[in-house]
Amino acid sequence: MSKGELMMELDKGFHAEIDQIAEDFWYEVLAKFQDANIYQTWSHDKIRFGRKKISHLILKKDGKIIAAVQVRLVKIPVINVGIAYVFWGPLWKVKHAFPDPDIFTQAIRALRNEYTTRQGLMLRIYPALFSDESDVFLPILKKEGFTLMEKIPLSRTLLIDLNPDLDILRKGLDQKWRNCLNRSMKNDLELLEGNSDEMFEMFIALYKELLDRKQFAEPNDINEFRLIQEDLPADYKMKIYLCRYQGQLCAGAIMATVGQTGIYLFGATNEVGMKSNGSYLIQWKFIEWLKQNQFDCYNLNGINPVTNPGTYKFKAGLCGKNGKDVYLLGMFEACDNIVSAFAVKCGDLLLSYYKKGQAAARNMRNMLQARLNLLKQ
Hints:
alpha+beta, 7-stranded mixed sheet, 13 helices, 14 strands, about 45% helix
């Protein structure tokens, strides 16, 4: 079949524009969507992957922007095959309008037309959709030619509904969590709030201390996020909280506040923080801030009761009766080019081997460190 035959025509009135937008205007576009998020900011992908590896699609209806998406591109030179990847996109929930699944349909159709059919790439999308929406969106994705990547584990998270009044949200906290919050408010804690590089640096020191103490692998390169913070426009910068007890830094957290959902990105505490309950105060103050600024939801951004039971217990207590435990819908792919499909599958295999090697090396380091600690004793 020819490219023209593979193209799926957009519905009447819809029109897609590819890479016809400047960086400053992209942020004006993000401001139109309630589902905008930090992973769809220009700064995020520019810092992490490079400007030449990002592309932008704008979907219009009757000349009005009704969807937008930032795409990461990885291509093999000369033969020009590879992958187009969308994380937490497309953005299709226009502010002050009822979310229309048909807009999502047209957006993923436009994505498939451009990156799979016209450019010949493997297209993978990881939409910000959750398991309680599967009845609506799984049939749409299937109809539009996307297949669920079943071998990729589904991410699980907690979503807090911020629409109730603040006193109702507080009553909805788990009883033990609320008790810890009450104690934190009696501990004469000093709370710092801002978005400066100095505060980011202070948090990193606390975060590295946490990773060393628990011998955790760093899930995301926090230094990259520091560079992203520096690059983000003022209204899109991450929010940083630091807590001191008797002059000593004891807890901290970094949150994203793009769109109408707050996202918990990083958290850290030390022994002093655990005793003074500094993290409880930080989380509650952030919820107060989200309420004051008309946010609809707080995404606690990942839970795993098995591999990280302590963090799960903390987040579950914070969510309490105010939210829901959900899985992301998953990653979906579409491809018409067998060369791109083969190249991407080979890349997946190499990445899998690399990750296994990294994990083995990390386990060896942890084992050696444990033996050194025993010798020191």
